[in-house]
Amino acid sequence: MKDINPPLLETRQIIKATIGALILASVVFVIAVLPAEYGLDPLGTGKLLGFSGLYQPDTPIADTTVKTDVSKAYPVLKLEELGSGPNVPTPKEVYNPAPSKQFEQRQDIVTIRVPAGKGLEYKMNVLKYGQVKYEWVTDKGVLYFDFHGEPKQANPGKDEYYDSYTAAYSNNMIGTFLAPFEGRHGWYFKNKTDKEIVVNLRIQGQYMLDAE
């Protein structure tokens, strides 16, 4: 039985094969990879052969942040500022039992325009123990807000009773709310700047809009 010895490549042949492979790889890179991956077509062959159509530029992520003047100092809010105060009696309707059925679940997106130097309210009607989730953000700037509720009363007194849930200076807020009594619940927004500020409000839950 004879031994079979495969032919050995000479050094010159190895060098030629290596150079050929490098040239081929370079051609493929210029013709196909550059147009398809990077949108670069120096020879025009990418468009001719269809590789340029494979290029998809990166889409920049939208900036969802709201620019505010974080260096500005805002007044410190005190606990005593919450609600209508101790001198306003609590209406008896606050202690009424919860209804057997709540409002139907719904969701709304609302745009609220707060004029420069002005304040306004936006309210929902919620039954006792009705649940609402909310999210709001301004288009620019910071607002003072008081998230509060006013109970439904048969005979309202001279001084209006209301209960504050949250008060702060902010440009964005999210939360979940459980109504402690039946009535109108919502936000008082105060714009202390010299430009209109738009509030984009999204709400979900068991409520009726105040205008309905």
UniProtKB/TrEMBL annotation:
The chain crosses the membrane at residues 14-34. It comes from the Bacteria. Keywords: Membrane, Transmembrane, Transmembrane helix. This is Transmembrane anchor protein. It comes from Dyadobacter psychrotolerans.
